[in-house]
């Protein structure tokens, strides 16, 4: 049996078909798998693209935010050098030209090359050792400070760079907030791109506050050591650098031990920074810096200086940022007497009488303030009770009531009703509950009878009482109520004393003043006349003098009587003994005294005729001889010495009238600048020419232009002017150039 010959070909054909089918199936499966994979991958791709887009948008947003932040930080920032202080520096001088100290901040701009290396190295070592290597913000310092503060459990170290400190001082301010720190950091980076390191350091050293009103290293060197920067020793440089952290705590004037300890810390830091060697540091510690301040730079720290700077300076100088020098009317000797008398009285009687504070102001009859005490101790309280305190004057206000009565037809001898009075259930009483019938104005004023004063005020009209107060220069707000006659409106001691000075001078609205000359520091002074007010004469000066003298001779002010009988004044006591006053004058001075407590607690039955009158009398007794003899006690001529050649006699009367500093013993006076000068006015009783004209001729020609600018009343024909306080014309002593 033979095999079939066609079996093998059919089998190959089937195999080929199967293979093709398998390939097609595999391709279809792969396509399906790819399709399925693509479908599964499509959301992931979309998500990745979305993420990339979000990251790009976030980056753009960050860049925009950073740019906006930079624009916000720098939108009003300039690169010009900014003054470290705004208020002007005013050097206050006494009437004799001696410095009393400085009020306000002061600073000097010094170039980098004028700053010694020992000072620069001291500052960099303690404040910012990596200053020349960082970009304005130093992360390493921030971490180090954070660690030091963590270990100490308190703020022991700061991380701010010098650039950051400069940004805070001149651009950002001291606000404690994250916003401020954010701006400070951006500004620091910006400053580093715009200014050189030396420029940043120079600005910093010229503007950093170092205590006692001194801004910058140059001002501090003058203030504490009376030196230029070039002459600083290592110990002095270390002390100045140490002040940066806490100027008040390390002030060498008030806390020398703490200042020296801080300087030692700076010296150790300099050794660590390899700015100096250990031997140099040890030598500097062995000879620590000693304060040698100048009276021309130290803070004045007196109530009088504060009054000049805060109230009077702007009246004559306007607004200025330049350092100024002011020659005042203060007499240092009289000021010392005032302080001694006030302190002695409070030490002696303050505790037993329940009195903790007192104030005194003294002025010449023309209103020139020669002494001012604003409280018990300036260091304890800078509040000026002579100027800024407003207290009830009590019966001292009756000055205006009785002056209003004289202006409206009353005389001192007229009789008025002083019996009890009731006004809308108000029944004012007299001191001690005393009752009176009818009294003369003179007696009612001398005994300070309240019921009489109220009736008198109502009779003449409360508006007329206010008008009388305004005529005498009182500027305080006055409520027109019946109780105003008893001094219920509040006034200041300075203003009330000025009103009494108007009575003494016989002139309306005499304004107290304290500046005799002023000018930019380092140049000449512009002389000033007393303030020009209303020249109207008081028509009832003599009657008011009689009333005020009677108070001292036989009234409530007997405790103020002077041995020469020249005292005149008025007592004042407010309700419940909260305030007590005595204000009055003699031939040479007008003086006001107030005593009381800042919290207005009542004193122990202290009246104006007790402690205030005693202070007033003691001060007058001690101060008057300092000012010289009264004008009417001065002889008309000074005789030549009997044991020497004849000396031409000066006209003492004319000289003493013209020059408040005139000394009859040698016929000299003290100009506002320079040494004493001889008064060349000669007394010639045979001459019919007025003394002032003869004086002008004898003294030679004056500088008419300069005198005309200084004195509004200047007469070039006689080289004279009319003094503010009245009296004869005085000669202008500004000499014409040879």
Describe the structure in brief.
With 738 residues, the chain is α+β, with helices and mostly antiparallel strands. Among the domains are: 1-76; 105-286, Penicillin binding protein transpeptidase fold, CATH 1.10.3810.10; 628-738, no CATH class. It has helices at residues 7-74, 117-127, 139-152, 162-172, 178-194, 197-207, 217-225, 234-243, 256-272, 278-286, 303-317, 332-353, 398-407, 441-446, 450-460, 462-471, 493-505, 541-554, 611-627, 652-658, 691-699, 704-710, and strands at 90-93, 99-103, 106-107, 214-215, 324-328, 357-363, 369-373, 415-417, 438-440, 515-520, 526-527, 568-573, 579-585, 590-596, 668-669, 677-678, 720-721, 730-731.
């Amino acid at each position: 049996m033979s095999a079939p010959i066609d079996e093998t070909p059919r089998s190959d054909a089937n195999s080929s078909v199967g293979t093709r089918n398998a390939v097609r199936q595999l391709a279809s499966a792969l396509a399906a798998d790819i399709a399925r994979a693509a479908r599964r991958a499509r959301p992931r791709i979309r998500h990745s693209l979305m993420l990339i887009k979000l990251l790009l948008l976030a980056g753009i947003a960050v860049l925009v935010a950073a740019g906006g932040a930079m624009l916000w930080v720098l939108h009003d920032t300039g690169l010009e050098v900014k003054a470290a202080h705004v208020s002007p520096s005013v050097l206050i001088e006494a009437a004799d030209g001696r410095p009393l100290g400085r009020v306000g901040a002061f600073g000097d701009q010094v170039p980098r090359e004028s700053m010694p290396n020992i000072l620069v190295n001291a500052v960099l070592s303690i404040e910012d050792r990596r200053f020349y290597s960082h970009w304005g913000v130093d992360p390493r310092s921030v971490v180090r400070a954070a660690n030091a503060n963590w270990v100490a459990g308190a703020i022991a170290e700061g991380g701010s760079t010098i650039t950051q400190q400069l940004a805070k001082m001149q651009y950002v301010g001291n606000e404690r907030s994250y916003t401020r720190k954010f701006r400070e950091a951006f500004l620091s980076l910006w400053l580093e791109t715009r200014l050189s390191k030396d420029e940043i350091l120079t600005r910093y050293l010229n503007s950093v506050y170092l205590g006692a009103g001194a801004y910058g290293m140059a001002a501090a060197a003058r203030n504490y050591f009376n030196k230029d920067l070039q002459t600083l020793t290592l110990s002095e440089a270390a002390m100045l650098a140490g002040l940066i952290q806490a100027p008040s705590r390390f002030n060498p004037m008030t806390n020398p031990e703490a200042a020296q300890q801080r300087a030692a810390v700076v010296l150790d830091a300099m050794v660590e920074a390899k700015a100096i060697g250990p031997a140099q540091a040890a030598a500097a510690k062995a000879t620590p810096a000693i304060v040698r301040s100048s009276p021309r730079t130290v803070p004045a720290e007196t109530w009088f200086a504060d009054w000049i700077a805060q109230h009077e300076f702007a009246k004559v100088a306007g607004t200025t940022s330049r350092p100024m020098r002011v020659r005042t009317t203060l007499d240092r000797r009289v000021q010392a007497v005032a302080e001694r008398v006030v302190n002695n009285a409070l030490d002696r009687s303050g505790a037993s009488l329940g009195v903790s504070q007192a104030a005194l102001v003294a002025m010449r009859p023309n209103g020139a303030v020669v002494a001012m005490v604003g409280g018990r101790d300036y260091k304890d309280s800078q509040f000026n009770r002579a100027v800024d305190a407003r207290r009830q004057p009590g019966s001292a206000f009756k000055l205006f009531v009785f002056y209003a009565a004289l202006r409206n037809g009353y005389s001192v001898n007229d009789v008025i009703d002083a019996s009890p009075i009731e006004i809308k259930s108000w029944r004012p009483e007299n001191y001690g509950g005393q009752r009176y019938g009818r009294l003369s104005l003179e007696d009612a004023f001398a005994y300070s009878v309240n019921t009489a004063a109220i009736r008198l005020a109502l009779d003449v009209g409360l508006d007329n009482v206010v008008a009388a107060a305004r005529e005498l220069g009182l500027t305080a707000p006055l409520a027109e109520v019946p109780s105003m006659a008893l001094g219920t409106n509040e006034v200041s001691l300075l203003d009330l004393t000025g009103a009494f000075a108007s009575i003494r001078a016989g002139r309306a609205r005499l304004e107290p003043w304290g500046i005799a000359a002023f000018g930019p520091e380092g140049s000449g002074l512009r002389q000033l006349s007393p303030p020009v007010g209303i020249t109207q004469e008081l028509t009832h000066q003599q009657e008011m003098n009689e009333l005020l003298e009677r108070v001292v001779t036989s009234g409530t002010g007997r405790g103020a009587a002077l041995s020469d009988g020249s005292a005149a004044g008025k007592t004042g006591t407010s309700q419940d003994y909260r305030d007590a006053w005595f204000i009055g004058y003699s031939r040479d001075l007008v003086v006001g005294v107030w005593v009381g407590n800042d919290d207005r607690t009542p004193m122990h039955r202290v009246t104006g005729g007790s402690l205030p009158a005693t202070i007033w009398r003691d001060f007058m007794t001690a101060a008057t001889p300092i000012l010289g003899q009264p004008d009417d006690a001065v002889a008309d001529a000074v005789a030549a010495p009997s044991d020497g050649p004849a000396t031409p006699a000066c006209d003492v009367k004319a000289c003493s009238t013209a020059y408040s500093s005139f000394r009859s013993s040698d016929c000299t006076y003290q100009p506002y600048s320079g040494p004493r000068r001889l008064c060349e006015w000669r007394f010639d009783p045979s001459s019919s020419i007025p003394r002032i004209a003869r004086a002008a001729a004898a003294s030679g020609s004056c500088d008419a232009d300069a005198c005309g600018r200084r004195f509004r009343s200047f007469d070039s024909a006689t080289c004279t002017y009319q003094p503010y306080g009245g009296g004869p014309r005085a000669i202008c002593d500004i000499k014409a150039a040879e």
